């Protein structure tokens, strides 16, 4: 089933939440709605589910206008943040409830519930009532119920929000397979960029009453539309350095620690303009001091994380810069060090508007 939104507007009293949202979700696609708290993600899901009505715009499911169609007639499954479990039923009965309503046989029901409960790691608490479940377990029970119903459209509102970090990590690996098996069209809300990148075929980044950018996880990571989106994706956060591109002897450069960093010649139009250079910490690496073109820095602190080590350094002008390298790989001792930059991964933003500036394609001269 496809979902199509055309120019959806929604306000509560004088507060505009959605101001013209247009979106197309393909059959079998998992689209992640990602954005800060209050961006309108839940409101958008509630509109699609039919729990609330838009002020303007249309919602189509498989090409059929949903205007006036009751929520229960839309064929949409949901798992919302507030669990909404039946308090008098145990987890098994809660998960099985959509199948019971459909008159499914006991054996099929048990098989379906066991399978999804095992995957979501709640198989050991199936006989517990909601009040005997932790919040994370309640949330996974609600998710299991939505999945067990096998709807062709599934709306999931931050279903792992209360789940601890280790389980979230495991679920990020498991859920895509399960959703693929179900062949459902899924809209999945999260505030966790790693979850968004792991689960979404595409990600719609919501902010300022609408969708700011939509694309594959790779598109958004490598070509964020603006500084805000670049900051939302990535841990540690992208380094942003104020620069004013110049013309160097070999092409366009930006200076960091007085060292000219070669940029794409497609940035010739930005020479002399106030820009911000975005460098992801993993696009930087420590090299021996004195390496040609390397930026001299002073190492401040080093934080070993699980899979990587993050070093905070300062440039000669005292600007902080973070460098990330795989855990276990050798790094600099404290004190003076030098950094080389993978300039192919450098992003340039307009300092006033924050928009990313795409380099102008450079015409290749072809021999006559
Ligand atoms: N029924 C309502 N009445 C008035 N305001 C509402 C109502 N529902 C949502 N809002 C407002 O709409 C805005 C968007 O809320 P929404 O719950 O969609 O955010 P969200 O992006 O899902 O955030 P979170 O990630 O924290 O859940 C908020 O400012 C919220 O206060």
Automatic annotation (TrEMBL):
The keyword Metal-binding does not apply. The keyword Transport applies. Pfam families: ABC_tran (PF00005). GO terms for cellular component: ATP-binding cassette (ABC) transporter complex, substrate-binding subunit-containing. GO terms for molecular function: ABC-type transporter activity; ATP binding; ATP hydrolysis activity. Keywords: ATP-binding, Cell membrane, Membrane, Nucleotide-binding, Plasmid, Translocase, Transport. InterPro entries: AAA+_ATPase (IPR003593), ABC_transporter-like_ATP-bd (IPR003439), ABC_transpr_MalK/UgpC-like (IPR047641), Mo/tungstate-bd_C_term_dom (IPR008995), P-loop_NTPase (IPR027417). Signal peptide: none annotated. It comes from the Bacteria. Residues 3-233 form the ABC transporter domain. PROSITE patterns: ABC_TRANSPORTER_2. Belongs to the ABC transporter superfamily. PANTHER family: MALTODEXTRIN IMPORT ATP-BINDING PROTEIN MSMX, TREHALOSE IMPORT ATP-BINDING PROTEIN SUGC. This is ABC transporter ATP-binding protein. It comes from Gemmobacter fulvus.
